[in-house]
Inverse folding.
Protein backbone atom coordinates (compact mmCIF):
# COMPACT_ATOMS: atom_id res chain seq x y z
CA UNK A 1 0.00 0.00 0.00
CA UNK A 2 1.31 3.44 -0.91
CA UNK A 3 1.64 5.99 1.84
CA UNK A 4 -0.81 8.78 0.87
CA UNK A 5 1.67 11.46 1.98
CA UNK A 6 4.43 9.92 -0.16
CA UNK A 7 2.04 9.78 -3.11
CA UNK A 8 1.74 13.58 -2.92
CA UNK A 9 5.51 13.98 -3.24
CA UNK A 10 6.60 11.08 -5.42
CA UNK A 11 5.17 10.33 -8.89
CA UNK A 12 4.31 6.78 -9.93
CA UNK A 13 7.33 4.56 -10.56
CA UNK A 14 7.99 3.74 -14.19
CA UNK A 15 10.12 0.84 -15.43
CA UNK A 16 11.56 2.91 -18.26
CA UNK A 17 14.89 4.62 -17.81
CA UNK A 18 15.64 8.29 -18.08
CA UNK A 19 18.76 10.26 -18.85
CA UNK A 20 21.25 10.75 -16.04
CA UNK A 21 21.91 14.13 -14.47
CA UNK A 22 24.77 15.96 -16.16
CA UNK A 23 28.19 15.39 -14.69
CA UNK A 24 29.32 18.16 -12.39
CA UNK A 25 25.80 19.36 -11.71
CA UNK A 26 25.23 21.43 -8.59
CA UNK A 27 24.26 18.41 -6.51
CA UNK A 28 26.55 15.77 -8.00
CA UNK A 29 24.83 12.80 -9.60
CA UNK A 30 21.29 13.96 -8.93
CA UNK A 31 19.01 12.29 -11.44
CA UNK A 32 17.11 14.26 -14.04
CA UNK A 33 13.38 14.62 -13.44
CA UNK A 34 11.56 14.34 -16.73
CA UNK A 35 8.79 12.42 -14.94
CA UNK A 36 8.53 9.36 -12.76
CA UNK A 37 11.47 7.80 -14.54
CA UNK A 38 13.96 9.82 -12.47
CA UNK A 39 13.02 7.82 -9.39
CA UNK A 40 14.08 4.50 -10.94
CA UNK A 41 17.49 5.91 -11.90
CA UNK A 42 17.92 7.50 -8.49
CA UNK A 43 17.13 4.25 -6.70
CA UNK A 44 19.84 2.54 -8.76
CA UNK A 45 22.36 5.34 -8.12
CA UNK A 46 21.78 6.44 -4.54
CA UNK A 47 18.87 4.54 -3.07
CA UNK A 48 16.41 7.23 -4.18
CA UNK A 49 17.87 10.00 -2.03
CA UNK A 50 18.76 12.25 -4.97
CA UNK A 51 15.27 12.03 -6.38
CA UNK A 52 13.67 12.63 -3.00
CA UNK A 53 15.96 15.61 -2.45
CA UNK A 54 14.96 17.12 -5.80
CA UNK A 55 11.25 16.68 -4.99
CA UNK A 56 11.74 18.23 -1.55
CA UNK A 57 13.67 21.11 -3.12
CA UNK A 58 10.74 21.70 -5.49
CA UNK A 59 8.17 21.60 -2.68
CA UNK A 60 10.22 23.88 -0.42
CA UNK A 61 10.77 26.28 -3.33
CA UNK A 62 7.02 26.46 -3.94
CA UNK A 63 6.37 27.04 -0.23
CA UNK A 64 9.00 29.78 -0.16
CA UNK A 65 7.47 31.53 -3.17
CA UNK A 66 4.03 31.45 -1.57
CA UNK A 67 5.33 32.74 1.77
CA UNK A 68 7.45 35.41 0.11
CA UNK A 69 4.46 36.85 -1.80
CA UNK A 70 3.14 38.42 1.41
CA UNK A 71 6.45 39.06 3.12
CA UNK A 72 8.94 41.38 1.38
CA UNK A 73 11.53 40.87 4.12
CA UNK A 74 11.44 37.10 3.61
CA UNK A 75 11.66 37.54 -0.15
CA UNK A 76 14.70 39.79 0.26
CA UNK A 77 16.39 37.34 2.67
CA UNK A 78 16.08 34.49 0.16
CA UNK A 79 15.09 30.84 0.36
CA UNK A 80 17.87 29.76 2.73
CA UNK A 81 16.43 31.90 5.53
CA UNK A 82 13.00 30.36 4.94
CA UNK A 83 14.33 26.81 5.10
CA UNK A 84 16.19 27.50 8.33
CA UNK A 85 13.25 29.27 9.94
CA UNK A 86 10.57 26.87 8.74
CA UNK A 87 12.20 23.59 9.68
CA UNK A 88 12.84 23.31 13.38
CA UNK A 89 14.47 19.91 13.86
CA UNK A 90 14.89 20.06 17.62
CA UNK A 91 13.52 17.04 19.49
CA UNK A 92 10.74 19.22 20.92
CA UNK A 93 9.55 20.51 17.54
CA UNK A 94 9.88 17.10 15.91
CA UNK A 95 7.90 15.48 18.71
CA UNK A 96 5.20 18.15 18.33
CA UNK A 97 4.94 17.42 14.59
CA UNK A 98 4.78 13.66 15.10
CA UNK A 99 2.16 13.80 17.84
CA UNK A 100 0.16 16.52 16.09
CA UNK A 101 -0.01 14.48 12.90
CA UNK A 102 -0.85 11.25 14.71
CA UNK A 103 -3.58 12.76 16.88
CA UNK A 104 -4.95 14.57 13.85
CA UNK A 105 -5.99 11.17 12.51
CA UNK A 106 -8.51 10.67 15.32
CA UNK A 107 -11.46 11.98 13.30
CA UNK A 108 -10.80 9.58 10.44
CA UNK A 109 -10.22 6.71 12.87
CA UNK A 110 -13.47 7.54 14.68
CA UNK A 111 -15.46 7.49 11.44
CA UNK A 112 -13.90 4.18 10.41
CA UNK A 113 -14.71 2.64 13.80
CA UNK A 114 -18.08 4.20 14.59
CA UNK A 115 -19.32 0.90 16.02
CA UNK A 116 -16.97 1.20 19.03
CA UNK A 117 -17.86 2.88 22.30
CA UNK A 118 -15.84 6.02 23.13
CA UNK A 119 -13.75 4.06 25.64
CA UNK A 120 -13.05 1.24 23.14
CA UNK A 121 -12.34 3.76 20.42
CA UNK A 122 -9.74 5.63 22.48
CA UNK A 123 -8.02 2.40 23.59
CA UNK A 124 -7.90 1.11 20.02
CA UNK A 125 -6.77 4.46 18.63
CA UNK A 126 -4.01 4.70 21.24
CA UNK A 127 -2.81 1.21 20.38
CA UNK A 128 -2.72 1.99 16.64
CA UNK A 129 -0.98 5.34 17.12
CA UNK A 130 1.65 3.92 19.46
CA UNK A 131 2.31 0.99 17.11
CA UNK A 132 2.62 3.28 14.10
CA UNK A 133 4.97 5.65 15.90
CA UNK A 134 7.06 2.77 17.19
CA UNK A 135 7.33 1.33 13.68
CA UNK A 136 8.25 4.75 12.32
CA UNK A 137 11.00 5.27 14.85
CA UNK A 138 12.32 1.78 14.17
CA UNK A 139 12.39 2.50 10.45
CA UNK A 140 14.10 5.86 11.01
CA UNK A 141 16.76 4.29 13.23
CA UNK A 142 17.35 1.62 10.60
CA UNK A 143 17.67 4.16 7.79
CA UNK A 144 20.03 6.32 9.82
CA UNK A 145 22.14 3.24 10.53
CA UNK A 146 22.11 2.14 6.89
CA UNK A 147 23.25 5.61 5.84
CA UNK A 148 25.90 5.62 8.57
CA UNK A 149 24.36 8.75 10.10
CA UNK A 150 23.93 7.54 13.69
CA UNK A 151 26.40 9.75 15.49
CA UNK A 152 26.12 10.17 19.25
CA UNK A 153 24.35 13.51 18.74
CA UNK A 154 21.84 12.05 16.26
CA UNK A 155 21.19 9.12 18.60
CA UNK A 156 20.65 11.50 21.53
CA UNK A 157 18.21 13.57 19.46
CA UNK A 158 16.27 10.51 18.33
CA UNK A 159 16.09 9.22 21.91
CA UNK A 160 15.01 12.62 23.23
CA UNK A 161 12.37 12.88 20.49
CA UNK A 162 11.09 9.39 21.35
CA UNK A 163 10.84 10.29 25.05
CA UNK A 164 8.97 13.52 24.29
CA UNK A 165 6.56 11.76 21.93
CA UNK A 166 5.81 9.15 24.58
CA UNK A 167 5.29 11.89 27.20
CA UNK A 168 2.90 13.82 24.93
CA UNK A 169 0.93 10.67 24.09
CA UNK A 170 0.68 9.80 27.76
CA UNK A 171 -0.61 13.31 28.55
CA UNK A 172 -3.23 13.02 25.80
CA UNK A 173 -4.45 9.49 26.42
CA UNK A 174 -4.03 9.38 30.21
CA UNK A 175 -4.21 12.91 31.63
CA UNK A 176 -3.50 13.22 35.34
Amino acid sequence: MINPLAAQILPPVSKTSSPKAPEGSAHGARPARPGGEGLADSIMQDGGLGFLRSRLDEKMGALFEKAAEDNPELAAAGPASFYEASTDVTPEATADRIVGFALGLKGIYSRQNSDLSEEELMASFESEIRRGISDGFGDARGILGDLDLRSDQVQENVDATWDLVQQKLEEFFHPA
